[in-house]
Amino acid sequence: MRVLVTGGAGFLGSHLVDALLERGDKVVVLDDLSRGHISQIDSSAKFVQGDVRSSEDWEKACQNFQPEVIHHLAAINGTRRFHKEADLVVDVNVNGTRLALEFAKLHSARLVFYSSPEAFGEQENMPLSNDSDSRFTPAHLHQRHSYGASKHIGELLCQFEARKGMDVRIVRPFNVYGPRLQGDENGQVVSMMMAASPIEVHGDGLQTRSLTWVGDVVEAFIKVGTQKGLEGQAFNLGSTDEISMIDLATKIAGLRGVEIVFTKPNNGDSKRRLPDISMNDAIDWVAKTSLDDGISHLL
User: Fold this and answer.
1) Digit-coded pLDDT (tens) for 90-143
2) Closest residue by Cα to residue 151 from 115, 102, 113, 117
3) By the 8 A CB rule, do 114 and 72 touch?
4) Does the pTM of the predicted model rise above 0.90?
5) pLDDT grade for 204, boundaries at 50, 70 and 90
6) Letter string b/e over residues 127-164, b meaning 16 or more CB atoms within 10 A of that residue's CB
7) Closest Cα partner for 45 from 103, 2, 106, 95?
8) Own/partner pairs for 227-231, CB < 8 Å, 24+ apart?
9) Which amino acids are annotated catalytic?
């Protein structure tokens, strides 16, 4: 198949590109390298440096390449950026998705939109399902939910096009970790704890997450992108094993021999995040890698 991957130089995108190439697919990567690294893109893929908000850059990526599937991962990520750069987060995530839909329609391509459990905001009723409400605190308190709200709008736009007959699928990866995940201040929790000394725990550390190995979710990405009959469906791709942040920090600190310190809570941090995975029966997928095995791989 001919597959276009936006954000293909990043953590999730580069692992997806590797899996697509292993299948024998022809792959084009569109990425602005603001967060990803060209070294993470397999040389067998064609690389186009560009901005997903630019029609001209989309045209370059599609030139002489009629994509059959578009995996749209490109977005502004990193929890600390959501409040500090809310305008950029919304601009890239919403307008990039609008163009992804536009070019998918133009080329009659299937679109896989990469949403997030953040699209549910501070919904505390678990597990999160396709019928869960999205709950966001007032914007004047903080702008943390610029990311989650932009992903919610992305899902809205996708479902709007699906109602009109477009082949769109939605995936929500839940706290994915693995090789290539950045551990800087804009990274995600496992990679940050693997890199930090001392390890920082926000708030009381009792908030829980369902951590999912990258190899498991990439398997699901491929299924969602290739399987027929999934138009308009959304999939929660995550482990159902919860762990508190203090327990995670204790586990990693013990393995690394470093200390733990407590810092102030993150704005809008959910107390729990557990996926309902019943919809994944349609793709015959569950997360298989245990957290202990995943952390062992990283170490």
Assistant:
1) 999 999 999 999 999 999 999 999 999 999 999 999 999 999 999 999 999 999
2) 115
3) yes
4) yes
5) very high
6) bbeeebebebeeeeeebbbbbbbbbbbbbebbeebbee
7) 2
8) 227/282, 227/283, 230/169, 230/282, 230/283, 231/162, 231/166, 231/167, 231/168, 231/169
9) 147
Structure tokens at 89: 């987060």
Report residue 221 as tokens: 């990405």
Burial bucket for residue 190 (CB in 10 Å: 0-12, 13-18, 19+): buried
SS3 242: strand
* pLDDT on residue 255: 94
Written as six digits, the tokens of 74 are: 């490109």
Q: Return the percentage of the chain with pLDDT > 70, whole number.
A: 100
b/e per residue 237-251 (b: at least 16 CB within 10 A): bbbeeebbbbebbee
Tokens of 223: 């299924």
